[in-house]
Structure formats: C-alpha cells, structure tokens
Write a structure and sequence with these properties.
Blueprint (H helix, E strand, L loop, with lengths): L8 H22 L5 H5 L3 H9 L10 H19 L11 H9 L8 E7 L11 H17 L4 E7 L2 E6 L5 H8 L5 E6 L2 E4 L15 H39 L1
Antiparallel strand pairs: 1-3, 1-4, 2-3, 4-5
C-alpha cells in the first residue's frame, strides 16, 4: 500500500511563497555578477538623478542651504512688513522696548548672556569646573529640544549662549530663567530675571577675568614703582650722609 500525506491548510497557504522564493533564487544564480569594469561604466550623474527623482526641492537642499533660505525669507518678511503700530496700543514702555529690541536677532544669529545665582544649588561657591559643567548641561538640554545653540563659560558666574536661529531667542530666555542656577539672562542689553532666585546688583558680581588680571597687573606695577622710588630715596640719603661725613 502507498502512504499519502495530506497538506494542512497552513501548509497550502505557504506553498506559493516557497515556490516564489525558489524561483527568485534560481534567477539570482544565473545572473551574471558585475565586474569592477562593469561598475566603472556606470554614469554617476545619471545615478544621482535617479536617486533624486521624486524628491521635493527642500529634501535635496543641504542643511546650510535650508538655513540660508530660512534667514532670507525672514529678512524679506521683516523688511516689507514694517512696524505694526496697532500692536503697541496695550503695551507699557518696557514691553515695547522688549518686543522691538530683538528685531535684528529675529533674522539671524543671536547671543544671550546668563548670570548664575550667587551659589550652586547645594550652597557651595561656584568654581570654574562647576560653571563649565553646567554650561555643557544647558547645551545638551537645549539641543535636545531642537535648538542649535552652544553655551560657554566666559567669566566667573557668566555664561554665553550663541545661537544660529535668533528667532528662537525667547525660548532660550524662557529656559534660562526657569533654571534654579540662573539669576538672570541678558539679551540685547535687556535683563530677564529669574523670579525664584535672589537678585544681586551688577556691582556685587565678581569682576571678569580680564578685568581682574588687568587690576592685578596694575597693582603689581604700582608696587614695583613704589619699591623703586623707596630704593632711590634711600640711596640718595646714603650719598648725602657720605658727603657730609667727608666735609667733616
């Protein structure tokens, strides 16, 4: 007797797929492998056009081209619109100043300064290492939000934020003034204070490193001048005493 095997429903469904796979493998086995000489005959320009076919114009632009196009578009819009006086009706003078102070940054790059709180969150005094570390943290947090910014430590308790897209400056200000380590942010000479951090006058802040170095150099110069003057006076007195002794 001859034994027979009956295909189950799931096996019948898989059969066409297996046949198709075997047919594909057979075609690949008989296909001629391209040599290095064959590949050298390919037209790179034609291949590039094939890859670009169907892509939108913006998708074919480099990141730099996209940025430049965005800047030009915003400059054109700012130049043609002028100032809408109706926007000023319900604003106080400080609001008006804040609104129109950043017109140039709204069409290009911007720089924002951040002044750190008197001490770290732990109560420890700031060090150069701690200030550099927090600058790196702010850079990472802002960039994770899609903003192209860099934060640097420039002086004791002073950070500099540089950004290519100045029109996002308000977002950076909002971020900075919400940080417990930031006392205030300054953009185009306008201060934005953190309401949750004790404020200090600028006179109470530590001097910049450049100013401190200049003051130290000036003090040393004065000390050398004073020492030289004192030495010269002492020499003159000794000479005078020697002359008086000879006269006797």
């Amino acid at each position: 007797s001859r034994s027979t095997t009956t295909m189950g429903p799931h096996q019948r469904r898989r059969a066409p797929r297996v046949v198709a796979l075997l047919a594909f493998c057979a075609v690949c086995a008989h296909a001629k492998t391209k040599s290095a000489k064959d590949w050298s005959k390919l037209d790179e320009a034609s291949l590039s056009r094939d890859w670009e076919d169907g892509d939108d114009e913006e998708e074919l632009m480099s990141e730099h081209d996209v940025y430049e196009a965005m800047v030009e578009k915003r400059r054109a819009a700012a130049g043609g619109a002028g100032i809408d006086l109706s926007q000023l009706q319900n604003m106080d003078p400080d609001q008006v100043k804040s609104k129109f102070a950043h017109q140039q940054a709204n069409t290009g790059m911007a720089m924002i300064f951040a002044t750190l709180a008197k001490t770290q969150a732990s109560g420890a005094p700031w060090t150069e290492e701690a200030e550099t570390e927090i600058a790196g943290q702010y850079t990472a947090l802002l960039q994770s939000g899609g903003l192209k910014v860099s934060v640097y430590r420039i002086d004791p308790r002073r950070l500099l934020v540089t950004m290519q897209t100045g029109w996002y400056g308000e977002d950076v200000i909002e971020f900075l003034t919400a940080q417990p380590a930031v006392m205030k942010a300054t953009w185009d000479s306008i201060d934005y204070e953190n309401p949750d951090v004790e404020q200090e006058p600028d006179e109470a802040l530590p001097p910049s490193e450049k100013t401190a170095a200049s003051t130290t150099a000036k003090r040393k110069k004065q000390q050398r001048a004073s020492s030289s003057s004192s030495s010269s006076s002492s020499t003159k007195k000794k000479k005078k005493k020697a002359v008086e002794k000879d006269d006797l």
